[in-house]
Amino acid sequence: GAGVSQSPSNKVTEKGKDVELRCDPISGHTALYWYRQSLGQGLEFLIYFQGNSAPDKSGLPSDRFSAERTGGSVSTLTIQRTQQEDSAVYLCASSRRPLNQPQHFGDGTRLSIL
Amino acid sequence: QQQVKQSPQSLIVQKGGISIINCAYENTAFDYFPWYQQFPGKGPALLIAIRPDVSEKKEGRFTISFNKSAKQFSLHIMDSQPGDSATYFCAASIMDSNYQLIWGAGTKLIIKP
Predict the structure, then answer these.
(1) 3-class SS at B104?
(2) Which of A41, A94, A103, A110 to probe the B interface (max B CBs under 10 A)?
(3) What pLDDT, on the 0 to 100 scale, is given for residue B1?
(4) Cα separation, A16 vs A113, whole angstroms
(5) B105 vs chain A: nearest CA distance in angstroms?
(6) Nearest-by-Cβ selection for A107 from B32, B43, B108
(7) How far is CA A42 from CA A45, A82, B87, B92, in A?
(8) A94: helix, coil or strand?
(9) What pLDDT shows up at residue A42?
(10) Which residues, in sequence order, are bridge partners of residue B49?
(11) Is the CB of residue A31 less than 8 Å away from at least one CB of chain B?
(12) How far is Cα A100 from Cα B71, in angstroms, rounded to an integer?
């Protein structure tokens, strides 16, 4: 497929566990974004990667959240010591330079913390 | 000043009617205004976008109207269909210098058959 791929599509875990969410962007897209969407809410920016530049981590809500992007392609969002308020849909998007728009979204990972 | 305010929060329209969703912004440096459509269980997808050099852009049944002086833009869906039922998000950004989209809170649109 040519779209943004996210895995897993659903993740249920116990409070206090660590989780890893994966995003495979569209081939050739150098920009990659992570967003969080709580039930019935808008999109909350988490982090932005652009090529080999230092990522913009300004949206990460706490130091329990981190993200990596290996080889300028696949990205992993890690949430350590999960809390119930982390329950949300985590969306990944990618875009092409130089305009960075439009952003193409995956279908998200629905994370539920018990 | 970075906010984009979207209204209404939810909207019910009869099939065949016109759906109108409004957004307002404060930052006059914004120069790219997209609308995204999101179906349940799916990620948002770009529907239509406008730059401030035009006051209106139409793609099929979907039209963006842009009022630069009022700092407002709106999405009009003509002849609304049940398949248009989705959540719609407006957003804004500065194309040349800023990658971040500033998102509205979303409008849940229901088209009644």
Answers:
(1) coil
(2) A103
(3) 62
(4) 9
(5) 5
(6) B43
(7) 10, 21, 10, 14
(8) strand
(9) 85
(10) B34
(11) yes
(12) 23
Neighbours of A1 (CB within 10 A): 6
Give the helix/strand (H/E) hosting B14. Answer: strand B10-14
CA distance A80 to chain B (A): 24
Give me A42's structure tokens.
């808008």
Instruction: Tell me whether A100 touches chain B (CB under 8 Å).
Output: yes
> Do residues A103 and B100 lie in contact, with contact meaning Cβ atoms separated by under 8 Å?
no
For residue A66, is pLDDT > 90?
A: yes
Q: Which amino acid is at A91?
A: L
B45–chain A Cβ distance below 8 A for any pair: yes
User: Has residue A52 got a pLDDT over 90?
Assistant: no
Q: What residues contact residue B30 under an 8 Å CB cut-off, 6+ apart? A: B52, B92, B93, B94, B102
How many Cα neighbours within 13 Å face the side chain of A113? 17
Q: In sequence order, which residues have a C-beta less than 8 Å from that of residue B84 and are 6 or more positions away?
A: B19, B77, B109, B111
Rg, Å, chain B Cα set: 13
**Per-residue model confidence as pLDDT tens for chain B (113 residues):** 678 999 999 999 999 999 999 999 999 999 999 999 999 999 999 999 999 999 999 999 999 999 999 999 999 999 999 999 999 999 998 877 667 889 999 999 999 99
